[in-house]
Write a structure and sequence with these properties.
GO molecular function, one term: magnesium ion binding
Protein name: Phosphoglucosamine mutase
CATH superfamily of the largest domain: Alpha-D-Glucose-1,6-Bisphosphate, subunit A, domain 3
Structural class: alpha/beta
CATH topology of the largest domain: Alpha-D-Glucose-1,6-Bisphosphate, Chain A, domain 3
EC number: 5.4.2.10
Function: Catalyzes the conversion of glucosamine-6-phosphate to glucosamine-1-phosphate.
Helix content: 25-40%
Catalytic activity: alpha-D-glucosamine 1-phosphate = D-glucosamine 6-phosphate
Largest sheet: 7 strands, mixed
CATH architecture of the largest domain: 3-Layer(aba) Sandwich
Length: 467
């Protein structure tokens, strides 16, 4: 049965770029026409405006294995070449590989076609500036504005050329192997590649590093990406680690910019635990710049307490890996990330890299001779409760005196072993109430009290539409 959906057209009134590029339903918002238009605009902003010597600008284009990525990458490459950009088509690669190759090749910019952990029908277009860095809002806005201008259409010898980047994956693998503090000989590692972009390179690099590997979720067919596997579905990885008696398991998402782990007992090790293990190891080896870890406000307080005891300070940012990256770049910090598994090593990468993170975790198990479960004990997770309170005036969270008094009172009761965070949603009339405490009952009761206070003091007379 053939299902047809009318395309969702981008409106110049709304912002095209979201928090991580342009993302939406393939052939809905993300059409071939849009891919060409935004690529032609990017060719001007990231290419021709940056190249001063008269040479044609160059760009690296990569994608994850979604079926729609085939036509979208073709449209992106066509748009770039038609605007006078030479394209290096890297094929299917992780997002961090695309970013690395932009820098390694000395390209003027890069394009990654992926919707990360989203299901197969979605897709997205993400740009990297020279050096493999994510774009700031003002550059994305400049690309969007350029889409309204007449197209730059060179002719003859001035049109761009498209060539296959034949050794793209090999370059990335060599780079990853050079980051290892210890080989992985003697370790058995289960890899869950989410039927995604790491299905080729992750097994290869772990094997080259000396590990005995068991691979699941590495048979992408264009439609099964993230389907019941990967970092958002860890059950199969947990089963495989136990069934094979492995030392640990590593899970990627569809574009492999994040990593979660499973210890030898089948227990999930989240991004906060991963960052704790790596921060302590980097401090011991003198590689943790200023003894600072950059993390978002959503990271568990248990991580902060554990690292504080070890002499490591946490620099907190807003939620989103782009804010972690901004802080790291501004101060030269070497490690940062999110609870979701985006971990950034600025010495080796310009964005979160799930394969790199997995290698570093496995290397610590091999180097220390300690099981991952023991390494993870460095951090004690505090119970965390999150409640979304709907249909409230989220703009008044910081200004309502009664609510602020309730927050202060709750924080005083929790003391240093608890935390309260009230955060307005950026997309809907919801206030997120998060409470951490020494025990679950205290966390739940405190969260319930604050949620009631939000409803009492910020409740709307009539529900409002999502913004």
């Amino acid at each position: 049965m053939l299902l047809c959906f009318p395309p969702v057209k981008w409106s110049p009134v709304s912002r095209l770029f979201g928090t991580d590029g342009v993302r939406g339903l393939a052939n809905g918002l993300i059409t071939a026409e849009l891919a060409m238009e935004v690529s032609q605009a990017a060719a001007v902003v990231l290419g021709h405006r940056q190249v001063q010597d008269g040479k044609r600008p160059t760009a690296v284009v990569a994608r994850d294995p979604r079926a729609s990525g085939e036509f979208i990458s073709a449209a992106v490459s066509a748009g770039l070449a038609s605007a006078g950009v030479d394209v290096y088509d890297a094929g299917v690669l992780p997002t961090p590989a695309a970013a690395y190759l932009v820098a390694d090749l000395g390209a003027d910019f890069g394009v990654m076609i992926s919707a990360s952990h989203n299901p197969a029908p979605d897709n997205g277009i993400k740009f990297f500036a020279r050096g493999g860095h994510k774009l700031p809002d003002e550059v994305e806005d400049a690309i969007e504005a350029e889409m309204k201008n007449p197209r730059h259409r060179p002719t003859g010898a001035e049109v761009g050329r498209i060539q296959r980047f034949a050794d793209a994956e090999d370059r990335y693998i060599v780079h990853l192997l050079q980051t290892l503090p210890a080989r992985l000989d003697g370790l058995k590692v289960v890899l869950d590649c989410a039927h995604g972009a790491a299905s080729g390179c992750s097994p290869q690099v772990f094997s080259d590093a000396g590990a005995e590997i068991v691979v699941i979720g590495a048979e992408p067919d264009g439609l099964n990406i993230n389907d019941g596997v990967g970092s958002t579905h860890l059950e199969e990885l947990q089963k495989a680690v136990l069934a094979h008696g492995a030392n640990l398991g590593i899970a990627h998402d569809g574009d492999a910019d994040r990593c979660l782990a499973v210890d030898e007992n089948g227990t999930v090790i989240d991004g906060d635990q991963i960052m704790t293990i790596l921060a302590l190891a980097m401090k011991d080896s003198g590689r943790l710049k200023d003894n600072v870890l950059v993390a978002t406000v959503m990271s568990n307080l248990g991580m902060k307490l554990a690292l504080q005891e070890a002499g490591i300070r946490i620099e907190e940012t807003a939620v989103g890996d782009r804010y972690v990256l901004e802080s790291m770049r501004a101060h030269g910090y070497s490690l940062g990330g999110e609870q979701s598994g985006h971990v950034i090593f600025s010495d080796y990468a310009t964005t979160g890299d799930g394969v790199l993170t997995g290698l570093q975790i496995a290397a610590q198990v091999a180097k220390t001779g300690k099981p991952l479960s023991e390494l993870a004990k460095a951090m004690n997770h505090l119970p965390q409760v999150l409640i979304n309170v709907k249909d409230v005036d989220k703009a008044a969270v910081k200004t309502n005196a009664e609510l602020q008094a309730a927050i202060a009172a709750a924080s005083a009761v929790l003391g240093e072993t608890g935390r309260v965070l009230l955060r307005p949603s950026g997309t809907e009339p919801v206030v997120r109430v998060m409470v951490e405490a020494a025990d679950m009952s205290t966390a739940q009761s405190t969260a319930d009290q604050l949620a009631a206070a939000v409803k009492q003091h910020l409740g709307l007379q009539q529900p409002v539409a999502a913004d």
